[in-house]
Amino acid sequence: MRIGIVAEFNPLHSGHRYLIECARKIADENNGEVICVMSEFFTQRGEVAIVDGYIRAKEAVRCGCDLVLALPYLGSVAYGDDFAKKSIEILFGAGITHLIFGTENEDVSMFEEIYTKQQNENGEEYKKLLKTGSNHAKINSILYGLENNNPNFSLAYSYYKAIREANLDIKLIPVKREGQGLNSGDVSEQVHLSATAIRNNINDEKIEKYLSREMLADLRKENIASEAELFPYLKYKILTLGKVGIEKIYDVSEGLENRIYEAVLKAENYNDLVNLIATKRYSNKKIQRVLLHILTNTTKENYKKYFSTNNFRVLAVKKDKAAIIREINRDGKINLHPLLNSKNSMNFEQDIKVARIYEFLFSKKDVFRENIQIIY
To answer: Which InterPro entries does the UniProt entry name for this protein (predicted)?
Structure first.
């Protein structure tokens, strides 16, 4: 048995630790391993990772994962289906037999019914609802019964869909999510705080019991990253690209370049910019992802060239499980690279660019000088 986890761990807190412990318990009972694929510098909701991927991956192994692989930027900063598709592709290539995930609703039996409805939909109703200004999440809720207010449940469906469409033999292990809501930003007495609340209150003593001593120490010594710091760079980039240049950016469509350009002329800060661009149809999270693509100059051509890669970086591994890397490479579905060097770096051009932008803004490290984290 090999159990997979898709994660951001931004940062890794008590709720994440509980999920890893559940996976660890099942794996140990079946002589198995736990493998995680994790977003590295930016996240699915278009947010900046609070600290770099090596720090968060190290904590994941300390908590019980055997191996942590980097989810490439184009998989990390993507709408739910692409995020799930790339994550599942990597984990299947790493040999997982089961996928464990936290969800507000453990009853995933309805996924097959939702999937069947989607396959039978001719697209006309979807187009009609799009014209009313509804976003994709709202339409999925109306047409297929996919719960719009339970983001982890919706993402779990994307995992199911990715597994189903690729005809993979991976079993789902849902774990009931407890504690604070995913987007809750305030500190309150809970079984588990949300990652959002921890990021928003990083210097509050009340968050300390939700983080390990090691994770807290790493957070306190690093330069904490936030979206607010992106604004001057985004403004420069948007004005430099102009509407024609913005139109070439990945995930920009249907005249969105006009809203973006006009908004940056009025916005006074990052939140202003997002809110001025967002509409009923284009959620704040969608806009945040697009802004990251602008910041990193990720074009539609970049997506075509790099999304299908089967080369992936290893961020951290438990010392006595390092042989898993060789085993996965021998199997040949994906290629794992523990270290970047002049021979393999051409496989990671997009992610090296993204890493160096993140490092310039926040961490002052060089991805080429970072070694795989080996945890004893």
So the answer is: Rossmann-like_a/b/a_fold, tRNA(Met)_cyd_acetate_ligase
State the CB neighbour count (10 A cutoff) for residue 292.
27
Annotated binding site for ATP: 6-19, 102, 152, 177
Instruction: Output DSSP code: residue 191.
Output: S
Containing 235, the helix (H) or strand (E) segment is: helix 231-247
Which residues does the annotation place in the binding site? 6-19, 102, 152, 177
Q: Which one, of 219, 188, 189, lies nearest residue 203 by Cα?
A: 219
Question: pLDDT of the chain along its 376 residues, tens only?
Answer: 999 999 999 999 999 999 999 999 999 999 999 999 999 999 999 999 999 999 999 999 999 999 999 999 999 999 999 999 999 999 999 999 999 999 988 889 889 988 988 888 777 777 777 778 777 778 877 887 776 678 888 999 999 999 999 999 999 999 998 755 555 555 555 668 888 888 888 878 888 889 999 998 888 888 788 899 999 999 999 999 999 999 999 999 989 999 999 999 999 999 999 999 999 889 999 999 999 999 999 999 999 999 999 999 999 999 999 999 999 999 999 999 999 998 999 999 999 999 999 999 998 788 777 888 888 6
In what helix (H) or strand (E) does residue 300 lie, and over which residues does it extend? helix 300-306
* Residue 375 token pair: 């945890």
Q: Are 279 and 133 in contact (CB under 8 A)?
A: yes
N- to C-terminal Cα separation, the chain: 22
Q: Which residues are CB-neighbours of 192 under 8 A, at least 6 positions away? A: 13, 14, 15, 18, 178, 179, 180, 210
Taking residue 374's Cβ as centre, other Cβ atoms within 10 Å add up to 14
Nearest Cα residue to 274 out of 225, 243, 228: 228
Structure token digits, residue 285: 């999270």
**Cα(134)–Cα(140) distance, integer angstroms:** 10
Listing DSSP states for 52-114 in one string gives -HHHHHHHHHHHT-SEEEEEPHHHHSS-HHHHHHHHHHHHHHTT-SEEEEEES----TTHHHH
Torsion 134-184-49-81 (CA) sign: negative
Task: Compute the C-alpha angle 364/366/371, nearest 5°.
Answer: 125
> Cα–Cα distance between 79 and 230 in angstroms, integer?
21
